[in-house]
Amino acid sequence: MSAQTRSRRVTCADIMKRKGGEPIVSLTAYDAPMASILDPHCDFLLVGDSVGMVVHGLPTTVGVTLDMMIMHGQAVMRGAKTALVVVDLPFGSYEAGPQQAFESASRVMMETGCGAVKIEAGVYTADIVRFLTDRGIPVMAHVGLRPQAVNVTGGFKAKGRSNDETDTVLAEAEAAEKAGAFAMVVEGVDEALAGQVTNTVSIPTIGIGASATCDGQILVTPDMLGLFDWTPKFVRRFGNARERIDEAIEAYAAAVRNRTFPGEAEVYRVKKD
Ligand SMILES: Nc1nc(=O)c2c([nH]1)NC[C@@H]1CN(c3ccc(C(=O)N[C@@H](CCC(=O)O)C(=O)O)cc3)CN21
Ligand SMILES: CC(C)C(=O)C(=O)O
Ligand SMILES: [Mg+2]
């Protein structure tokens, strides 16, 4: 199913079928109006825990709560008509084990109506992925650079710098696939390693900073729109939202100051009865 011609919502099975086929297009979404703009262009929308950084101004994703994810998930579901919606499980809501993960993931599914959840997968999360999948919750894994582990890894560093690191990422990917994940995000890994992961697993890989070897791509929407000054290596700015917004605000401020706003067309002249 290609974008724009869809008569029903994209499913996890649709995404799985795209392995090795037409690249999967995805972006992050956090609110209803933006979701409605992204929807016709994307196969799936991710309600990423990056919301903490790009919407709430937190320094990392570690402070994001399950309630925040549910509230943004609900908003995105109201705007996204046909794209699959995937919601990130935030830090602290699944790592304790399958039971905790099921409680969090089932709340997300029930309260938002989204189609799948995503977890940052270490090898240890295989049990969690299996437990959720067996009980009706589709899981997207997230391997490589795992932002929720920033306090252990000491920074957002690309993976693949040593054989050890390469083996770990491959092991994470294979564990997630075997445990029943329907797709996986591969973040911040060396191009050769991304190709190795994509060739090894039978489920689609969605890259972010992981080269064109992946089966699809994702970016943080405000990054690709050019809303921020920061540009890590993997981001391409497809727009210049910051300048466009700045121009509009500047024009508004000038119009207020010189009293040309509100103008003739923008005032109420109501008849008295
Ligand atoms: N706005 C935003 N965009 C993202 O892509 C994003 C978030 N927030 N928050 C959650 C994670 C964190 N991510 C990040 C954050 C920083 C770098 C970064 O600074 N990378 C450097 C160093 C890379 C290296 O030396 O290995 C770079 O220059 O790319 C990478 C990924 C990706 N995710
Ligand atoms: C960068 C993507 C994959 C993500 O996990 C997020 O936006 O939180
Ligand atoms: Mg995330």
Automatic annotation (TrEMBL):
One of its GO terms (biological process) is pantothenate biosynthetic process. 3-methyl-2-oxobutanoate binds at residues 49-50, 88, 118. Pathway: Cofactor biosynthesis; (R)-pantothenate biosynthesis; (R)-pantoate from 3-methyl-2-oxobutanoate: step 1/2. It catalyses: (6R)-5,10-methylene-5,6,7,8-tetrahydrofolate + 3-methyl-2-oxobutanoate + H2O = 2-dehydropantoate + (6S)-5,6,7,8-tetrahydrofolate. Its cofactor is Mg(2+). GO terms for molecular function: 3-methyl-2-oxobutanoate hydroxymethyltransferase activity; magnesium ion binding; methyltransferase activity. Its main location: cytoplasm. Binds 1 Mg(2+) ion per subunit. NCBIfam families: panB (TIGR00222), PRK00311.1 (NF001452). This is 3-methyl-2-oxobutanoate hydroxymethyltransferase.
